Amino acid sequence: MLKYLISGVSLLAIALPAAAQDGEDTITVTATGTRGNVDATGQAVTVIVAEEIDAMQGADLTRVLERAPGVSATRTGGVGAQTAVRIRGAVGEQTLAILDGVRVADPAAPSGGFDFGNLLSTDLSKIEILRGSNSTIWGSDAIGGVIVATSRFADGLSASAEYGARDTVNARLAASLADADTGFLGLSGTWFNTDGFSSAASGSEADGFEQWAINGAARYYIDGRSEVFVRSRYAEGDLDIDGFPAPSFTLADTLDTQETRQWTGSAGGTYDSGPLFLSAAYSFADTERDNLDGSGVTTFASEGRSDRIALRGEWRPFGPTLVHFGGEHEWTSYETLFDAGESTRIAGAYLQGGVEWRGIAAHIGGRVDDHADFGTEVSFGADASYDLTADLRLRASIGEGFKAPSLFQLHSDFGNLLLEPEQSTSFDLGLSYGERAMRDSGVYAEATVYRRDTDNLIDFVSCFGVSGGICTDRPDGTYDNVSRARAQGVEAEIWGSPGEGVTLGAVYTFTDAESRDTGLQLARRPKHSALFTAEFAALERGSLGIDVRVVGASFDDALNTVRLDPYEIVTLRGALTVTDTVEVFGRVENLFDADYQTVAGYGTAGVSAHIGARLAL
Fold first, then answer.
1. Rounded to the nearest 5 degrees, what angle is found at the Cα of 166, between the Cα atoms of 160 and 170?
2. Confidence class of residue 22 from pLDDT cuts 50, 70 and 90?
3. Average pLDDT, the chain
4. Can you tell me whether residue 138 is helix, strand or coil?
5. Confidence (pTM)
6. C-alpha torsion angle, residues 518, 520, 523, 527 (rounded to 10)
7. In whole angstroms, how far apart are CA 199 and each of 19, 158, 487?
8. First and final CA of the chain: distance in angstroms?
9. Distance (Å, rounded) from C-alpha 165 to C-alpha 606?
10. What gap in Å lies between CA 338 and CA 335, rounded to an integer?
C-alpha cells in the first residue's frame, strides 16, 4: 500500500487495524483535510489515541477531551445529558464535530450544533482536537475549533464490560477480519445503562440514561492504488430529564424523558498514485428526537438530516511543495412537531498551497462558500512552523471561521431570513518541545498564546412588550445578529517521564472570554482550569493513575449575576494485565465527593466507584 492510500482511511471514516495504528498519535486530518504530521502544521492540534482513552476508563467522553488544553465542557446532569464542548471559550455550537468522516451536527437543534452527550468514548480509538478557527478547510461551524473522532476496530475479537455506582453498566463487543491484500470488515456494538442521579440539584428522583449502538465498516482494496469503503453507525438513547413544572416553573424533578435516534453513514473511495491523493465520499447524518411527559405524551419532536458529497485531495507537484484542495455540497433539512419543515443547501471549495522543507512547514489558502439563504462567504487561513532545534519548534497560525445560521434560526416561527453568518478571526503563537507521545525524548512541553474575535453572534431577541422594528409580527421573539465577543488566553502543558514506569503531566488554560459590547464575562467560561495527572507502573503488569481536575469560578449568565463556584475533582484509577488477553481495571471518580455545578441548578455525580475487564483475542 502506498503512503496516502493507507493514511486516507482515517479521513474517510475507515479505522485502521491495530497493526497499522503505529504513529497514529502524531497524525491528524484537522489541519489540512488530509492526513499529515502534527509537526508539519503551525496550528494547535492535540491527538489522543486508544491507549490514553483506555487509561481514562469509562464512557464519559468529557473526561478525555478535557485532557487537551483549551477544552472545557458543561452538562445538564449525568452522562448522556445535554453536553456542550467549548474550545477556547467559543460556544458549544461553534465546535465542528466529525465522527468517522461524517459531520454529526443536528440541523433541527435551535443553534444547529452537536450534543456531545450522545457520543460515548467506549467505542472510540482516536480523537483529534484542532484549537482555532479553520473554515478554510472545513467550512461552516469551525469557529472555536474542530473535533474529529474515529471509531475503534482492531483485528480479531475484543470485548469489555464494567459495572459501578448507580448500577452503571458499560459494555462493548467487537469483531473484525482484515487481510493486507483484500480489505477489512468490522462490526461492533455497545450498551450503556445507568440509574443516574437527579439532574435537578434540588431534586431527589434519579434520572437515568440508556444507549445502545451498532457500528460497522468495510473496505476493499481494488489494487495497490485504489480502495472503496462503506461505513454506518446507528445509536438509540433514552434519557430521563428534569424540567420546569407549574406552578413555580423552576427547575425540579419531573418524569419527562427524551428519546434520541442517530443514524450516520458514508461510502466512497480513495486513490493514491504517490504524488496525487484523492478521496471522494457521500455521507449522511440523521437525528430524531422525541420528548415525552410522564404519561408518555409527546410534547416535542424533531428530525434533522444532512446529506453531503465531498472531494478532498493532496498533490505534490515537485520537491517540497504541496497543494491541498477540495469541494463539497451539503443539503440540510429539519422538521419539528410544530414546524412543517424547511431545507437549505451550502456548497464550497478550497485551495491551500504549502511547502514542507527540512524544518520549515508553511501553508496558505482560501475558501469560498455559497449558501442558499445568505449568499457567499469567503474564508482565509495561513500557518507556519519552524524547527529551531531538533526538538524545539516555533509555530503560528491565523484563521477565519464562520457559522451559517441554523434552519431553526432562519425558518422557524422565531426565524429571521435576514440573518448573517457568525464570523471569527483567530491567531495563535506557540512554542513546543518534543512530541506528546514522548517516544524520542522523556519530555513534552508546549505553550501557546491566542486570541479570537467573533462578530455577528446570533442570539434570541425577546419581543415582550415590543411591537415595532425587528419584532413586527413576531410577538414571541426572534433571532438576530446582536453581539460580538473576544476570547484570548494562554495554554500550557508539560508531560515527562522522570523515571522508568512513571509519567507526570500538567495542563493549564487561561481563558479571558468576554462580550465586546458589555465587557462582561461570557457565561460558563472559567478563566482558569488545570489538570494534574500521574501514571505509575505497579507490580510487574499493573498501573496506577491519579487525575486532579481544577476549575476556577465562572458565571452562569450573560449579566454575571449567577456565580458558579470553583471546584476540584480527584480520580484514582488502576489496571492489571492478568494474561496476554485479559485486563482488569477500576477507578474511583470524585474521590472526595465534591459538590459542584457546571450549569446552575443542575447536579453532578458524587463519589463513584467502577470496576471492569477487557478481553482481546
1. 15
2. low
3. 92
4. helix
5. 0.94
6. 150
7. 43, 34, 30
8. 26
9. 10
10. 8
Q: How many CA atoms lie within 13 A of 212 on its CB side?
A: 3
- CA distances to 244, 382, 523, 616 from 562, rounded to whole Å, are 18, 39, 9, 49
339 vs 67, 108, 331, 335, CA distance in Å? 40, 10, 18, 6
Residue 154 above 80 pLDDT?
no
Q: For position 266, what pLDDT does the model report?
A: 97
Provide long-range contacts, Cβ within 8 A and 24+ apart, for 252-257: 252/200, 252/202, 252/203, 253/198, 253/200, 253/203, 253/204, 253/205, 254/293, 254/294, 255/205, 255/293, 255/294, 256/291, 256/292, 256/293, 256/294, 256/299, 257/291, 257/292
Tell me whether strands 443-461 and 145-151 are parallel, antiparallel or unpaired.
Answer: unpaired
Placement of cell 520549515 in the chain: 360
Region of 9 (left: φ > 0; alpha: ψ -120 to 50; beta: rest) is: alpha
What are the backbone angles phi and psi of residue 24, rounded to the nearest 5°?
A: -65, -25
The C-alpha atoms of residue 144 and residue 454 are separated, in whole angstroms, by 10
> Do residues 57 and 573 touch, judged by C-beta distance below 8 A?
yes
Question: Which residues neighbour 30 within 8 Å (Cβ) at sequence distance 6 or greater?
Answer: 43, 45, 128, 129, 130, 134, 146, 148
Please state, as a whole number, how many other Cβ atoms lie within 10 Å of the Cβ of residue 237.
20
Tell me: the pLDDT tens digits for 267-277?
A: 999 999 999 99
Helix %, strand %, coil % of the chain (to 5): 10, 60, 35
Mode of pairing for the β-strands spanning 95-99 and 145-151: parallel
Nearest to 53 by CA among 24, 78, 19: 24
CB 19 within 8 A of CB 30: no
Q: Which residues pair with 392 in a beta bridge?
A: 433
Residues 6+ away with beta carbon under 8 Å from 319: 357
614 pairs with which residues across the strands? Answer: 160, 583
Residue 566 has pLDDT above 90, yes or no: yes
DSSP state for residue 412 in the 8-state scheme: S
Encode pLDDT of 433-442 as tens digits: 999 888 777 8
* 320 neighbors 356 (Cβ within 8 angstroms): yes
Average confidence (pLDDT) over 216-228: 95
